[in-house]
């Protein structure tokens, strides 16, 4: 259905049949809805517009009736069209497109086109839509007045734009008669009068053009008390001097050969910025697409001229050289005999013009470009300048806008469009390696057609040889990746080159302190490199894009500095790791500092000599532990120990032994611990080697090591160590069923860790006390402690600990009877563990999901989760985790009526529980055995198992809480005991 408002109201079907809307009130209703252009019009407003003060008896019902009439009229003409009239609180909306919207679209399309003839043609098509005055049969209706005025203004502006486009195309003679009538109708419109004057002047009638100016000047003075606008004064001056008329409505912007991808929001933002600022500089690394973006922005303005400064000016060009060049691009006469400087003549020629100059590629003539821009902006009030440069112009009023590389999605789209190869994982990898820089992607796309994306990705380490052939019509500096970066490298002095090439040794960027220590950087040199878009600055760090880094590594080798710089880099990061305080109140900041340097630490380990590497891994051990990265730590210590020539590697061997166990390898652990302690029998080593054995249920060994550690810490006056030993004793006592000792040691640890301000320590103590509260059925207390731990973990960035606390809270929610909350918490914990690649925490969260599934009766879902982890528990997790998992699988088998399967599972689970020495684990296995026996019709054996379970729980001082009695109650109910 088509609706016409550019003239009398008209409705037609898609095939052009007229639709008659007979009822006057229905026509008013339709016009009212159309005038609000798809917006909801309230019922109150519609009632007022339709009836004013002469309201019907029931206005709301009568309005509904008129709406129904309108819907029937549309539906009768074209089935399905009744849906166009939508009921939307607080009224109605018409989902329709009008000829006014088509007119606006064609006008916008015309204004964006750089070709004058095309612009004129599109505007002619737009104006042809008008059949008379807008809303011609509703000119007295208040609801239509604002829309009529708006559309009339758009129509006049379109006429003026078409006249300007036709004048630019050389149609001045044909325009004169057409514009004379419009000027008579609108004698005070200055833009229309300017178009008329240009047409007269272009048609060889300068006297009439000057008379038209005088007529306007007199009218403005007598009727409004105003003078003509500066652009009209400048136009009169040009006609008096018989100079070529610079219209300010044309330009020289190139047409797009390929679509601009991924920059829509940037174009909108920069268009808004140019409304606020008169000088905007697009700043960014070479090849990032500054010119394409600038041209796209310029197309949104009527008068825009692209001045390619790299195509006709040498690096030593003066401000007058540049002014002459810019004037030549604009087609202005270079009147050298006038006695005025080229910059002055350019300012005078532009005076009064509303235009945009795009000064492109300013970086090799920055000084003269800046001086000329400053003078033009000072002398020409209506001028705007959009500059592109790899460094700022650094003059007053400049608004710097850094052009970022394309995001991953846009980069993949660009690569796919240029290469003809659909986006996929390999394309994404290529785009990431090339930093999303459009020119690099386009160079790669030309190679992808021959090599394929997989081979291209594999060869990017040799990117400068690979990306060595661009398009023939590109500037020489943009035909290869090396030439692109050479263009930025060549102007640098030796100090800047030295800093830039040394920065390439870093991975993931570096701080100012690191740049000074490793690269010999001075602040002003670093700032200059940032200004030149060779270094990216942000969040207190400095980094190189990958292609620039690869280029600078080559330069580092050429300078013979590569090995020396690697050594300085490794020494700096070893020293940093040794300096930070990972225990106590500074722990959070220290962890954040080291996390930011993860890439640099890995690079340092690869490049360090054996002694430096040993220092670095020893300093990093506690950070790796806190982050939950035992595998990474284990491999690092293995590599260092295999090459170290240092006399003392005792501490590194202790770390390696501990991380091996944390990584799930419990083989020969007694012997390995004795070996480590033979050379590192410190209180810390005894404590840590005992602490990491908890996963294997070695309660006696843990108790012995921790007791010896505690004595050593006290002797040394080490409060942190004493707290750590108490926390381990609390966890060991809880596992052994000694709840009173667990409480005493846990509270002592919490107090001591509180004194030291160590968040990780508070986490450990609070976790044990929270588990103790679970065992005794104090769920509110357990939740409070785990939530406190969660806050500490989140604030410290200890994400594996965050995962653990979320799972703990999930267990409490399950015990409190809220399985939905439990699932949400466990799923959050699982996702976080997967992100951190922490298998143990992923297992812990998954088991929680299985617990909830079983309690909801979803036995298949629960079993699938549990069996996924069975082999891992047997091989890695140790007896405590295996005992619990087998108990759960046994209960599932029992609930399914599979007595033999249940008995087998609980028998294996009981053996694992006994290996832990944990009476609660043993009791759970015995309860499972009772279920299997009762299902098989062996009540005596079932009774014995339940009695043994009860005895174990009573011995531990932890009777089964009510929330955990479900399995036992079910088993007891099977027979009358």
From TrEMBL:
Known Gene3D superfamilies for this protein? P-loop containing nucleotide triphosphate hydrolases, Tetratricopeptide repeat domain, Winged helix-like DNA-binding domain superfamily/Winged helix DNA-binding domain
Tell me the ranges covered by the OmpR/PhoB-type domain, including all copies: 1-96
Residue ranges, compositional bias (Low complexity): 944-958
Against InterPro entries, the record matches this protein to: BTAD, HTH_77, OmpR/PhoB-type_DNA-bd, P-loop_NTPase, Sig_transdc_resp-reg_C-effctor, TPR-like_helical_dom_sf, TPR_rpt, WH-like_DNA-bd_sf
Any one GO MF annotation of this record: DNA binding
In Gene Ontology terms, what is a biological process of this protein? phosphorelay signal transduction system
* TM region positions: none
Query: Per its UniProt entry, which superkingdom is the organism in?
Result: Bacteria
- Feature: DNA-binding region: 1-96
**What keywords does the record list, in alphabetical order?**
DNA-binding
Ranges for region Disordered: 933-965
Family statement = Belongs to the AfsR/DnrI/RedD regulatory family.
Kindly provide the name given to this protein in its UniProt entry.
AfsR/SARP family transcriptional regulator
Organism this protein belongs to: Actinomadura darangshiensis
């Amino acid at each position: 259905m088509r609706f016409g408002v550019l003239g009398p109201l008209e409705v037609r079907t898609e095939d052009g049949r007229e639709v008659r809307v007979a009822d006057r009130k229905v026509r008013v209703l339709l016009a009212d809805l159309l005038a609000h252009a798809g917006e909801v019009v309230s019922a109150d407003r519609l009632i007022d517009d339709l009836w004013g003060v002469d309201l019907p008896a029931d206005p709301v019902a009568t309005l509904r009736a008129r709406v129904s009439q309108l819907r029937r009229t549309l539906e009768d003409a074209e089935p399905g069209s009744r849906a166009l009239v939508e009921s939307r609180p607080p009224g109605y909306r018409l989902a329709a497109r009008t000829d006014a919207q088509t007119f606006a679209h064609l006008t916008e399309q015309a204004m964006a086109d750089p070709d004058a003839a095309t612009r004129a043609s599109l505007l002619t098509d737009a104006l042809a839509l008008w059949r008379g005055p807008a809303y011609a049969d509703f000119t007295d209706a208040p609801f239509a007045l604002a829309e009529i005025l708006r559309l009339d203004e758009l129509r006049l502006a379109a006429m003026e734009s078409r006249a300007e486009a036709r004048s630019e195309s050389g149609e001045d003679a044909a325009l004169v008669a057409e514009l004379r009538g419009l000027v008579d109708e609108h004698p005070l419109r200055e833009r229309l009068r300017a178009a008329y004057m240009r047409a007269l002047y272009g048609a060889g009638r300068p006297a009439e053009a000057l008379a038209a100016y005088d007529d306007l000047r007199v009218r403005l003075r007598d009727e409004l008390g105003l003078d003509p606008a500066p652009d009209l004064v400048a136009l009169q001056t040009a006609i008096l001097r018989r100079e070529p008329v610079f219209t300010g409505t044309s330009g020289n912007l190139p047409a797009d050969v390929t679509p601009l991808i991924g920059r829509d929001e940037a174009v909108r933002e920069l268009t808004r910025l140019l409304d606020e600022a008169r000088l905007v500089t697009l700043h960014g690394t070479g090849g990032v697409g500054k010119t394409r973006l600038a041209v796209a922005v310029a197309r949104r303005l009527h008068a825009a001229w692209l001045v390619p400064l790299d195509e006709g000016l040498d690096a030593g060009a003066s401000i007058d050289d540049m002014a002459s060049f810019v004037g030549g691009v604009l087609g202005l006469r270079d009147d050298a005999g006038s006695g005025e400087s080229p910059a002055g003549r350019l300012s005078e020629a532009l005076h009064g013009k509303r235009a945009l100059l795009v000064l492109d590629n300013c970086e090799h003539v920055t000084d003269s470009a800046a001086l000329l821009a400053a003078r033009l902006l000072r002398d020409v009030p209506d001028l705007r300048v959009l500059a592109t440069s790899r460094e700022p112009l650094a003059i007053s009023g400049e608004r710097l806008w850094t052009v970022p590389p394309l995001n991953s999605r846009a980069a993949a789209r660009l690569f796919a469009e240029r290469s003809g190869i659909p986006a996929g994982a390999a394309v994404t990898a290529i785009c990431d390696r090339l930093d999303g820089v459009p020119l690099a992607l386009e160079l790669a796309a030309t190679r992808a057609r021959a090599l394929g994306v997989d081979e291209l990705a594999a060869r990017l380490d040799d990117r400068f040889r690979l990306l060595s052939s661009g398009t023939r019509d590109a500037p020489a500096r943009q035909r290869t990746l090396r030439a692109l970066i050479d263009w930025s490298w060549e102007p640098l002095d030796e100090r800047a080159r030295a800093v830039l090439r040394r920065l390439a040794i870093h991975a993931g960027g570096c701080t100012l302190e690191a740049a000074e220590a490793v690269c010999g950087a001075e602040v002003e040199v670093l700032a200059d490199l940032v200004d030149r878009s060779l270094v990216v600055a942000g969040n207190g760090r400095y980094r190189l894009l990958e292609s620039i880094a690869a280029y600078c590594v080559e330069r580092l080798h050429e300078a013979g500095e590569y090995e020396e710089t690697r050594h300085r880099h490794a020494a700096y990061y070893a020293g940093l790791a040794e300096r930070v305080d990972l225990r106590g109140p500074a722990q959070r900041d220290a962890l954040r500092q080291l996390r930011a340097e993860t890439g640099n630490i890995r690079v340092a380990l690869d490049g360090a000599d054996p002694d430096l590497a040993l220092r670095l891994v020893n300093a990093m051990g506690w950070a790796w532990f806190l982050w939950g990265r035992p595998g990474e730590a284990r491999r690092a210590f293995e590599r260092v120990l295999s090459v170290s020539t240092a006399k003392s590697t005792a501490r590194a061997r202790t770390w390696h032994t501990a991380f091996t166990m944390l990584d799930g390898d419990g083989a020969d652990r007694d012997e390995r611990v004795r070996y480590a302690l033979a050379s590192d029998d410190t209180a810390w080593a005894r404590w840590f080697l005992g602490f990491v054995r908890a996963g294997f249920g070695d309660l006696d060994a843990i108790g012995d090591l921790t007791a010896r550690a505690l004595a050593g810490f006290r002797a040394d006056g080490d409060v942190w160590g004493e707290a750590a030993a108490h926390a381990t004793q609390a966890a060991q006592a809880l596992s052994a069923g000694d709840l009173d000792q667990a409480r005493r040691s846990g509270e002592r640890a919490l107090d001591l860790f509180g004194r030291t301000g160590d968040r990780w320590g508070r986490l450990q103590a609070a976790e044990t006390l929270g588990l103790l509260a679970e065992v005794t059925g104090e769920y509110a207390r357990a939740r409070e402690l785990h939530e406190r731990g969660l806050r500490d973990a989140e604030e410290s960035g200890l994400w594996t600990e965050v995962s653990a606390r979320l799972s703990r809270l999930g267990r409490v929610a399950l015990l409190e009877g809220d399985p939905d909350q439990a699932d949400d918490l466990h799923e959050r914990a699982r996702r976080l563990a997967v992100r951190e690649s922490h298998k143990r925490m992923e297992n812990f969260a998954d088991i929680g999901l299985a617990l909830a599934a079983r309690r909801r009766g979803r036995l298949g879902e629960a079993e699938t989760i549990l069996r996924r982890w069975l082999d891992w528990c047997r091989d890695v997790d140790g007896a405590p985790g295996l005992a619990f998992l087998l108990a759960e699988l046994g209960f599932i088998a029992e609930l399914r009526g599979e007595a033999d399967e249940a008995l087998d599972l609980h028998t294996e689970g009981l053996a694992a529980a006994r290996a832990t020495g944990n009476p609660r684990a043993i009791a759970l296995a015995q309860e499972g055995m009772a279920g299997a026996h009762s299902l098989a019709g062996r009540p005596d054996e079932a009774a014995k198992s339940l009695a043994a379970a009860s005895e174990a729980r009573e011995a531990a001082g932890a009777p089964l809480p009510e929330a955990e009695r479900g399995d036992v109650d079910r088993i007891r109910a099977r027979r009358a005991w």
